[in-house]
Amino acid sequence: MTETVQRQLGASDSPIEDALEDAFTRMVSEGTQRLHRTWREVFVTGFFGGTEVALGVLAYLAVLSATQRPLVAGLAFSIGFLALLLGRSELFTEGFLVPVVTVAARRAGLGQLLKLWGGTMLANLVGGWLIMWLIIAGFPGLRAQAVESGAHFATAPLSTQSLSLAVLGGMAITLMTRMQHGTDSVPGKIAAAVAAAFLLAGLQLFHSILDSLLIFGALITGKAPFGYLDWLGWFGYTLAGNVVGGLALVTLLRLLRSKDRVREERDAATAS
């Protein structure tokens, strides 16, 4: 099918299917607003993201401690992703698909992307650490589970397995973003959040922010068999794996799928 025929068959004059056009428009519109936030807005939004994911971690630890079933606890963790979705806060790894598509469309610059990534990541960790301190102080019965869960990640050696889990973690969270921007249905967006939580927390994939909060909880107890330097080493390779999974395996393919539409948006941005 030629591009001309594609345009004629669709409801809009777009080189991609109508459903993809709607998703692309939503992503660029939202991404433009997110990337033009001030430092204060970036940090506050990211801080809320860290606190809300930490509440999901609380649910995860409580259910895991009671059942010793990670898959069931993963479903409980979806509370954190639902809070992100409905509260309109920001998680660092959610910044792969939408902001990168926006920069590719020249609706924002690379510096703004780096500001969003850096500010959100730092704020996620600060907000998450604070809530994990409150959780460990308020729920002493969960301390042993926090140490066990945190150690599972912090003591994992750098290996093909751990890197694979990190790549899959980045892919899963970015896929959640893609699914949520592919529909206007609130139940559909909620289903995507629950599915991603099941994959990430239930299957114990390596996620730089989520699992850092588990590690922080263990460290705050004072009984963890590792320290902050161990966390930092784990965080470094997990972050790299998440970026590869989110950018290379989801975002890049989406850009290739919509390359004609991206080119049109770049031309329009240049002309304006």
From TrEMBL:
GO CC terms of this entry: plasma membrane
Annotated Gene3D superfamilies: Glycerol uptake facilitator protein
Domain of life from the UniProt record: Bacteria
Cellular location(s): Membrane
Coiled-coil annotated spans: none
GO molecular function: formate transmembrane transporter activity
Pfam families: Form_Nir_trans (PF01226)
Transmembrane regions listed in the UniProt entry: 42-63, 116-139, 159-178, 190-220, 232-256
Matching PANTHER family: FORMATE TRANSPORTER-RELATED (PTHR30520), INNER MEMBRANE PROTEIN YFDC (PTHR30520:SF2)
Protein name: Formate transporter
